[in-house]
Amino acid sequence: MSRLLLRRLLSGVCSAALAIVGAAVQAHEYYAEGFLLVHPWANPTEPGATEVPVYFDIDDIVREDRLVSASAHWAGSAELRPGDDRATPALAALSFGPGVAVEFGPGNPHLLLSGVKLPLQWGRSYSLTMVFEKAGPIVVMVSVGAH
Length: 147
Known about the structure:
This protein is 16% helix and 41% strand. The protein is an alpha+beta fold. It has one domain (29-144): PCu(A)C copper chaperone (Immunoglobulin-like). Strands 1, 2, 3, 4, 5, 6, 7, 8, 9 and 10 form a 10-stranded mixed sheet that branches. β9 (125-132) and β10 (136-144) form a beta hairpin. 20% of the residues are buried.
């Protein structure tokens, strides 16, 4: 095989790989009317674990909205937690408005899924539906271990 042909073949393979990686990265941003939901993620769980926190960011907010609920077929229920302190009651909803990014992460507000029916495996993604008062339901993929 000539060097030129080999170089073109290698260039094509690299371009295809970059396109796939770029598509995967973009798949972690979900555009809603009025905001951008960025990179939902969770840590892997051990077999038998019944709860898992789910984290994400809300960015590019141009109008007020509220996260009112969430659900997943792989969990029995979901609640909005104001932080890591279990003694603090769950939130009925979480409001956000223009100009302020909201970080849902360890120590910050987050979703806590209970009644988890399967271990979340590193490198896999799991479907989750978040319901917003104005934007409505948004189906996202929660990436496990990639944060």
